[in-house]
């Protein structure tokens, strides 16, 4: 189910469950400079390096000019080979390397199964703006943002360690009638 996986990936790209993270160096080391001929970066021992997967997943230099659009097809069409395949570390919802999420495949299975069962039982799901508590709505000044996604956000993403929707995600769901959708 390639498109289902692309939808899950695109959701994890724009709204990564673990949106920021950090690593602490045990030993002193150097990191290569991305600029050709640029000096290496010296990282002393016991140094914390925070990094924001959330920001990286939205970078136009890494994902292309449409980086801010929700478009699952980017995981299927020529953009996959242009951006992600040659540079797989631009997509890190489960982290990478020795401490990569141990539950990654389980999480894909779980989310896929849940979505399939949900869509078998409900024929339409839409945001219930009228039911949304005030604190779950984006602050009015977000509307002024023309650069990022804030200007068009209808909910308010928040982060503690993991990301969630402040005040809950209020939706209206249409129950599927028996016999519809092949059930
Ligand atoms: C969408 C769902 C999930 C996401 C986005 C996710 C993401 C992550 C991330 C980013 C890390 C690395 C944290 C770090 O090293 O700084 C991690 C670690 C881990 N995850 Fe997940 N996870 C998910 C679901 C699961 C599930 C379902 C399980 C178990 C059934 C699981 C088990 C683990 C374990 C055991 C680690 C620690 C691995 C280690 O440090 O060696 N995760 N996860």
Automatic annotation (TrEMBL):
This is Cytochrome P450. Keywords: Heme, Iron, Metal-binding, Monooxygenase, Oxidoreductase. Heme binds at residue 101. Its cofactor is heme. Residues 130-155 are annotated as: Disordered. The keyword Heme applies. One of its GO terms (molecular function) is heme binding. It holds the Pfam family p450. Gene3D superfamilies: Cytochrome P450. PANTHER family: P450, PUTATIVE (EUROFUNG)-RELATED. Residues 143-155 have a biased composition (Basic and acidic residues). Belongs to the cytochrome P450 family. It comes from the Eukaryota. InterPro entries: Cyt_P450, Cyt_P450_CS, Cyt_P450_E_CYP52_fungi, Cyt_P450_E_grp-I, Cyt_P450_sf.
């Amino acid at each position: 189910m390639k498109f289902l996986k692309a939808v899950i990936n695109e959701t994890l790209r724009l709204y990564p469950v673990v949106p920021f993270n950090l690593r602490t160096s045990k030993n002193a080391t150097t990191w290569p400079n991305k600029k050709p001929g640029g000096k290496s970066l010296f990282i002393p021992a016991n140094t914390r390096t925070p990094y924001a997967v959330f920001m990286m997943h939205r970078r136009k230099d890494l994902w292309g000019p449409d980086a801010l659009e929700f478009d699952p097809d980017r995981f299927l069409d020529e953009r996959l080979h242009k951006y992600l395949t040659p540079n797989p570390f631009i997509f890190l919802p489960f982290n990478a390397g020795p401490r990569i999420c141990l539950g990654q495949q389980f999480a894909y299975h779980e989310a896929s199964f849940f979505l399939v069962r949900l869509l078998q039982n409900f024929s339409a799901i839409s945001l219930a703006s009228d039911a949304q508590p005030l604190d779950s709505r984006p602050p009015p000044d977000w509307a002024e943002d023309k650069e990022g996604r804030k200007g068009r956000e209808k909910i308010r993403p928040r982060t503690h360690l993991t990301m969630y929707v402040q005040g809950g995600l209020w939706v209206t769901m249409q129950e599927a009638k028996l016999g519809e959708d092949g059930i």
